[in-house]
Amino acid sequence: MFKGTNASAGIGIGKAVIVEETELVIERRAVTDVEAEVERFKGALEKTISDTEKLAQDLAENVGEKEAEIMQGHMMLLMDPMLTGEIENTVKNDSICSEYAIEQVCNMYADVFAGMDSEMMQQRATDMRDIKTRMQRVLLGAETVDIASLPEGTILVAKDLTPSMTAGINPKNIIGIVTELGGKTSHSAILARAMEIPAVVAVTGFMKNVKNGDSVVVDGNAGEVYVNPDEATANAYAEKRAAYLKEKEELQKYVGKPSITQDGVQVEIVANIGKPEDVDKVIEYDGEGVGLFRTEFLFMDRSAMPTEDEQFEAYKAVAEKLAGKPVIIRTLDIGGDKEIPYMGLTKDENPFLGYRAIRLCLDRKDDIYRPQLRALLRASAYGNIRIMIPMVTCIDEIREAKALIEETKAELDRKDIPYNKDIQVGIMVETAAASLMADVFAKEVDFFSIGTNDLTQYTMSCDRGNERISYLYSTFNPAVLRSIQRIIRCANEAGIMVGMCGEAASDPMMIPLLLAFGLNEFSMSASAILQSRKIICNSSKAELQAVAEKAMSFVTTKEVEAYMKEYMESLA
Q1: Among the options 74, 97, 187, 490, which is catalytic?
Q2: Which residues, in sequence order, are CB contacts of 91 under 8 Å at separation 6+?
Q3: What letter would DSSP give residue 366?
Q4: Is position 74 annotated as part of the catalytic site?
Q5: Is residue 187 annotated as part of the catalytic site, yes or no?
């Protein structure tokens, strides 16, 4: 058995197909006709852009618009005049061949991206190296492995999978992925999850121990891989896979079913989205609305700020498609791990504790905040839009934001522009300060949404991206659980809706606790909706009170996790 990182859930059983791209040898070669060489580069660039466009179209049709954005990001890099101009200038100034100029310039950019604190920017380093290799392959006439033509029942084995290689996968034929490199947050892992292909990455030395045609079992839940397993293991995993597929099929019974516990407590199960196109998945998985629309994604991967009208159209599209279902839209949350170059922000020494979210918006009312608020209010005439303010730490911030919303309403009234005059305004509770002041905030706003990702990070003083202290980053830590319980209690006592839009909202071991605490709304990835609804529909809030009391009696994370795991296993 080989151990790696569980990058995409599920069980895959099939035959190994090893995918190895021929290694490129890039040599510095002098050229005499630099203009002809620049034209040679331009030809390779056009071919790479054309190929990338086709990959993006295929992804949009076969997987989804959101996943296609990864390849669209590659196209933006390929069409960046700074990048292409620098490659052309290197060819001209140094009189060298295009492939070597690409090597120098792209590696420089990749190293810059890799050195940034932002996870998103670090992923850009992988994207840059991917487009570099693809342009060089075109120039050198090197063959590219046609992953799309691999046979049915393939377990794809590779040193690493670039985003462009993963984008070419036919999910009908590839039933598992194993790589020696990579991580959970890589674009390849994201695409594997979107295509629902079991994947285990970071399996050190795996390629030395597998041959083409070997029988391979990929356990994407446990992060384990078996090569030519014995009969007992093979049979056990065949049963597990059958059970997994049956479970997936049975979840369809929960489409159209209300999210009500056995003792009649109704909650809402809604989805987190980043772009208007994502709402199609919400509808497909029978989500009851949107609990978090991350508007920062409208501002990313572009060279200028979206206009008020562009934002209005995006918000309106989601509101109309959901036809009266709630759509909670978070105002711009940048800073921290989200950097947008054209905004001209200076880098904070500690961006997660710096100039971000509501702090930035209130400081830049005219160019950022007012246009967004106008767009949100205008779009509210077309559906059930609610406004959520992120990263709130003190009452002054929410009062200033609410005053600005009222000013914007008055402006729209003067122009006879329709909007929902009773639009709800809430806050994302994700800081220790907001948790401690939750009773006060509950009297000022219409709803709470708990952001467990940041709440856990700030409560535990633990950078969630730092692997060396990852043992501290758990929503099951008693301090975090007490904070969540308090926030929900304060909302319940004030009679306002309280939801959760962090990862914990769809955690099967956390859902029973959240139900017992009194959470009203669970917001998650669309693909997790039916599984979460099943858990809720088969639970009794009254019976879960004793479970929650017992869980809250423990003083360590391990004790809480072990107890909740045991409880969930007792229900299976």
Answers
A1: 187
A2: 31, 34, 37, 38, 41, 97, 98, 101
A3: I
A4: no
A5: yes
